[in-house]
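Morning!

This is the sequence you dropped in the shared folder:
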Amino acid sequence: MPPETQAFISIGSNIAPTQNIICSLELLQTMPQTRLKRRSSWYRTRPWGIENQAEFLNLVVEVETALAPETLLEHTQTIEQRLERRRTLRNGPRTIDLDLLLHGDRVLTLPQLTLPHPGLHQRDFMLIPLLEIAPEAHHPTLGPLQALRDAVSYRQIIERIPQPATDGLAEPA
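The structure's back. Tokens below.
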């Protein structure tokens, strides 16, 4: 088996969000050569892009994986399909959205995948949950994520919400 890499995946939903996020966490734990290590708290957030839609629930998970980034992406897209994600409207409502934020220090630009995630440094609903579980995390080209978080001008996060540990992972203190 190839060496494991630390990767971070953002999870969001605004259609039956609690149910779909719990299902996505369960499905993430079934991915081959991948172990779910930690998850952030859940956050209630304003929509990004199209504001006239329901608020989202968002969180970030850390995984250790031996999968290549492209293969990990394929697995997350399969989970989105199983949860009936429809890509009809960019930034529109969704049952589930799984975004690969970081895969080690990989910098990658492919038609289907850009690493680090191109919006990571602009979106507090990605940065704050990621920093909650990995406070020393770095963007491979822009530096410490803590400094990037402090520079975000538009805040989507409304509040951190208590969520039972239904996924077998402890919620951060």
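Headline: The mean pLDDT is 90.

More detail when I'm at my desk.
O.
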